[in-house]
Amino acid sequence: MSMCCIWRRIWNYSKKTTVLFPPELHDRLVKLAAQLGTSLGDLVRTACEKQYGVVSPDDRLAALRALSELALPVGDIVAMKRESVPAPEDLTR
Known about the structure:
The termini are far apart. The protein is elongated and about 65 Å long. It contains six helices and no strands. By secondary structure, the chain is mainly α. It has one domain (17-86). It has helices spanning 3-11, 23-36, 40-52, 57-68, 77-84, 88-91.
């Protein structure tokens, strides 16, 4: 990767945060990042994006399209409630 690309990538991140890890966790994360061929910062950013749902609108649309292509049994609201919520008289048994 050229220096120009590296600086352009760094420039996209405009907020700096300090995170303190216990030494053992830091060591494990550094080793994992090395195994994956990435930096500790990139590893943490990726984990945060996955955990907290920070995804682009394009990724959200792609997920929505994938869900809409699934052949899931879906009925109207009344039918779905009838199938999933027991009748009140059945709750006392």
